[in-house]
Amino acid sequence: MSESLRGAGHRQILVLEDSEPVRSTDTADAVRDWMRRHAAWLVVVAVLAVLVLVGAQRMVDARERQRLAYLARVPGILQPVPAHVAALWRWAPTDPVTVVADDTAGRWTIGTRYGRGVVDLRGTDPDTGAVRWTTPFPIDDALPPADRGTFPSVWVRCATAAAAPHARAVCGADLAGPGQVVGTPLMVLDPTNGAVLARQILPAGTLWTVSAGHLVIATPVADDRARTHWDVTVTDPSTGAAVWHTRTPTVPVSGPVRVGVTTIDPAATLSADPQRVLLAGDGHAWVWSPSGATRASVSVGVDGTTALGRAGTLVWTPFQSLTDPAGELVTDQGTHVTVDGTQVQLSVDDGTAHGVVLLRTGAGGTTIVADDASTGRELWRADGSTGPVLVLDGAVVATGSSSVVSRDARTGALRWRTQVGARPVYLGADPLHIVVLTDDLQLQALDLADGRTAVRADAASLLGKRSDEGVGGLDGAQEHGGRLLLTFRDGSGGALG
Length: 497
Prior knowledge:
globular
């Protein structure tokens, strides 16, 4: 082969090897050229992506703010538990505090102090214990003249009728005079300053409750010796202006009921939840809406009690509920279904366990049963619940002998289980935590999502007690005005937060 051909071929090979970088450079230039030509469009896309992300985060934040604001108004919800819990205020046995009413959202509490012929109502700051106001609640004028000035058995209860800025509370003193039934003094006041707005004395046997800001009064009327009906009057608690009125059909008087070797004289009851008013007695139950529309009129057993159940239901429980747990559920469709158990009393219920009724059954009531509110069908059951129960964020949270368990309210699926080291005596919540107090006076805040312990506090040392004083010495632990109040059998106590 000639030298010239070899040289030409060599040059051709060199040209072929150098061609790849040229194409790479062209591609990069093409990309840069495309980006320059579409720069404005790319900026718009980037801005829109950022806006979408920011908007989505704002929606999440808004939903969380709405959730927290809603929970702050749910009865029983505590103020947020801080990382370092403290004793906000304490009281001595010589100056005991008895709280008879409170409002979680309005942050007010009403306590009582008893004397001869009078009860003092005291507005108390839940954060400091300071007495904001004192208002006498006379009870003498409800007693016969010969018994005035005495100290009858008195039970004062109050109910919130309206929230701030026009807060109203209705307080009634249920009296038991010497050997006789007496009337019920009723007083309407402003719970923020103690100003009395209205007073009246209800006749003996009259029942009262509060519904949708109105005072509901049910008065028995004897039609003859064997039959009676009820007049139900709903008024503005401050002015007495009538809102609606109705009367029940005449029903036979049931009289005393013999349960085993015991004779029980069933008492009629009047109660309300945000959607209903219930009057139950003499084997009948009547339900109205807060506006007075008739919701239900049903017959139930005379040998038991009827109560408002969750999710639009009624729950009838026999007097011998421990030995004969077969009760009756009146579903939200009006169907009567026999159920095994008594209604669970919830320390907190935010309403998120939709369509679920919770019952207790088993030895000592340690089994929780969840039933469908429309059909009465059992959804799930779980053993080992020995203490308080609450409903929050779609979960049923219950306490065992030394644990706290969270389950999905509809399916019963386990969300988490946390050992707390001793027997729970209080179960509550703040907007982010499940709060539990054990009988060794240890307070724990558990993360609502996974049950991990977020806060621990030694309530015994904070209140100047020994840890063993919780067993037998603790009289009660309850939320009042957004704070956790502990009371002891010696009359002392304190508020934590």
